[in-house]
Amino acid sequence: MSSASARSQVGSNAGSRWTLRVLGLGFLALLLVAPLVIIFFETFKDGIGEPWDAITSPNGLHALKLSLIMVAIAVPLNTIFGVVCAILLVRHKSKLNPVIDAVINLPFALSPVVIGLSLYLLYSKNGGWFGPALSEAGIEILFSVPGMVLASIFVSLPFVVRETVPVLQEIGTEQEQAAQTLGANGWQTFRRVTLPAIRWGVAYGVVLTTARVLGEFGAVTIVSGTISGQTETLPLFVQKEFERFNDPGAYGASLLLALLALMTLLAMNLLKRKEDA
Fold first, then answer.
1. pLDDT tens digit string along 108-120?
2. Structural contact between residues 89 and 163, judged by C-beta atoms closer than 8 angstroms
3. CA separation for the pair 270, 58 (Å, rounded)
4. Of 30, 101, 139, 193, which residue has the fewest beta carbons closer than 10 angstroms?
């Protein structure tokens, strides 16, 4: 092949790569960046007053507080479950593992509305499987925070597991076996060997879980009753403000949700940079 032909081939390959990059970045910008820019513009096009009033209203502040409470409860529980379940699936082989894996993946396959309806059928006072007995004991699940937490836990259940399993498979068992040979017990091996090795897989799972809990709408709508100032999270607050034709309030709450998710991702990246430094 002549040098001119080789140069032409190299130039063609470089052009193809740049074309793919431009198309990929353009696609991402269209799907992700453009909607955020539009929401930001619509939120503040008439000033900051109306969005600020909506977010800082008693109902808006309660919705923010309730969303953060949901994250504070659901994310740690799913993190603990996810790590334990990942270790069970990878380190302890069993004939039941495929069944466990399939059950964990159910929230990916089921619509959140179906999940909410299932919880309603389980915990309804009128005809639910557990609702009447719990009601007699003074425990309210539906149209209260416990039911909303259950829905959030269910829909965000798989993320930590799915992010941790590949990391466990990649690191193998050599370091853990060496620690046990040196006299470390199970907890010491997990704390000093396994957990440091899987920490970033767990961290990515936590970020995804946080984002899902913050943004969950379908399942929470059914089990919460959407009672303003009581069982209304930020996504439900956005819907109610939109239905009231308070567009600045709806856009402002939507922007707040996006900022919370971005802050979570930024915090994880900062921690990773500090760890790598």
1. 888 889 999 999 8
2. no
3. 33
4. 30
